[in-house]
Amino acid sequence: MTLPPLAAIRAFEAVARHLSFTRAAEELGMTQAAVSYQIRLLEERVGTPLFLRKPRQVELTAAGLRLAPEVAQAFELLRSGFARSRGQVDGMLALSSVPTFASQWLAPNIGLFQLAHPDIAVRVESSGHLVDFAAEEFDAVIRATNHEVEGLVYHRLLDAEFAPMISPKLMEEYQIREPRDLLRVPQITPDDPWFIKWLELSGIEPPKFDDRPFSRLESQYMEAAAVAAGRGFAMMTPAFYPEEMASGRLVQPFETVGWNGHAYYLVYPETRRNQPKIRAFRDWIVDATAPLRQSQRGIAVK
């Protein structure tokens, strides 16, 4: 048997629960005449009256009494199912982050967010690809950029400042005393444009690029591992490596810091601004990264 129209079933469930066409109409946002019409459609489909319409009250017929508990149970199952689904949506924050921010800051600190918000689980994907919020199931992303896209909300977390960093061993081996000395040291990712800008900021004419084949590490956190292993120096964001510098694994040999306008942002669609889980994560991460922003010099390179 084909199911009757859902609107008719909804009207029946409401009238059976209230035993009133008027109150059912108010709950459903319909007119009383529209509710009566839906009940008539249902009665025609089942082939028997479902209500006794008396002057001052409505009663269920024998057929209505048999049908009402099953319809009520079916609607309760639907309500429970949607409530559970809504709870899962509200309780899971899906986040995409560029690898360097994910490994150097988010991974060590995300546990603090979950301690503060035990009702929200976080799924983090470390990736640099541009998320399509309309097609992918991510609530928010952390990206490094220097421009904003209409329809998205941006919260600045950290400027992508840069400076050369090196291991203490190579610092001593190559007798690094002034910026020009770095030109004698092997460079991780030799075509890194940050180094050219940093040399210009330091008043040094950049050397001609050597077009011989070389290895390239596509993420800063991999470059940091190579630097710590003594394989050369690399251009990195000092704010990501306070512990490595404090322990002596990495050295920032010169105070000069460059910045080309890029920053790390928390980004999400304007339409999701008021979602509780996004609001909670936004407030937490903006506050938690405040010390990073306060520690930065932010010298712009033109």
UniProtKB/TrEMBL annotation:
GO biological process terms held by the UniProt record: DNA-templated transcription
InterPro entries assigned to the protein according to its UniProt record, in alphabetical order: LysR-type_TF_proteobact-type, LysR_HTH_N, LysR_subst-bd, WH-like_DNA-bd_sf, WH_DNA-bd_sf
GO molecular function terms attached to this record: DNA-binding transcription factor activity; sequence-specific DNA binding
Residue stretches in coiled coil: none
One Pfam family hit: HTH_1
Extent of the signal sequence: none
Domain HTH lysR-type: 4-61
Keywords for the protein's UniProt record, in alphabetical order: DNA-binding, Transcription, Transcription regulation
PROSITE patterns documented for this protein: HTH_LYSR
Family under the similarity heading: Belongs to the LysR transcriptional regulatory family.
Name the record gives this protein: LysR family transcriptional regulator
Protein species of origin: Devosia aurantiaca
